[in-house]
Amino acid sequence: MNKKVNIPTVTGADASVVNEALSTAVRQYRSQRKMSLDELSRQAGVSKGMLVEIEACRANPSIALLCRLASAMGVSVADIVNVASSPSVYVISADDIPCLWHGEHGGSARLLAGTSGPDMVELWEWKMHPNEIFETGGHSYGTSELLHVVKGSLQLTVGEESFIIGEGCSAVARTDVPHSYACADEGALVFTMTVSEQGR
């Protein structure tokens, strides 16, 4: 029914901002801990070659890779892309909300806001079109996602089980196993998602 569309994270102006932020975060993390690329590679489950590309600001990592690196560094993805909350109110302008995934038919995933990690909560807005799918591995143990379909129908697959969530409906899913989101019908899909992940 659907093709796998888990393409690199971002393109265009968003890409350079996210890539530079990730490059800085990884370099600072390794420098502060006097950590080798090999050690971070083992901790994060990311190849040494990819880490070299990230630090040189030449990579365009996927959301899954961002999540693995954030978890290994004890921060949230929101910390890395600068949409994490502070102790008081932190307002994020529309222009500063990063798009971290683009589907091949115009879909997008925007990280609207998040708390600082490693125990973090993130708020996402997803837009998908027919034949778009996002597949990812499991998040850290105990991670939960709350999803609400604003428009269309969402096909949510968690592990071996698949569910259709209709317009106006919500779902709670434990996503510490491989999972995917896909547009379930012929119209556009819009859903919001809150991710709650506990640090390791």
List the helices and strands and how they pair.
Blueprint: H1 12-33, H2 37-44, H3 48-55, H4 63-73, H5 77-80, E1 99-102, E2 108-114, E3 120-128, E4 133-136, E5 144-151, E6 154-158, E7 161-165, E8 170-174, E9 179-183, E10 189-197
Antiparallel strand pairs: 1-2, 2-3, 3-10, 4-9, 5-8, 5-10, 6-7, 6-9
Number of helices: 5
Question: Level of helix content?
Answer: 25-40%
Unreliable residue runs: 1-9
Shape summary: globular
Query: CATH architecture of the largest domain, please?
Result: Sandwich
Task: Describe the protein.
The protein has about 200 residues and is an alpha+beta fold. The protein contains 5 helices and 10 strands; from the N terminus they run H-H-H-H-H-E-E-E-E-E-E-E-E-E-E. It has a 6-stranded antiparallel sheet. A 4-stranded antiparallel sheet has the order 4-9-6-7, with no helix packed on it. Strand 2 and strand 3 form a beta hairpin. The relative contact order is 0.17.
Supply the key terms:
single chain, 200 residues, alpha+beta, 434 Repressor (Amino-terminal Domain), Jelly Rolls, six-stranded antiparallel β-sheet, four-stranded antiparallel β-sheet, 5 helices, 26% helix, globular
Q: Quick recap of the structure?
A:
InterPro entries: Cro/C1-type_HTH, Cupin_2, Lambda_DNA-bd_dom_sf, RmlC-like_jellyroll, RmlC_Cupin_sf, TransReg_Diox_bact_type. This protein is an alpha+beta fold.
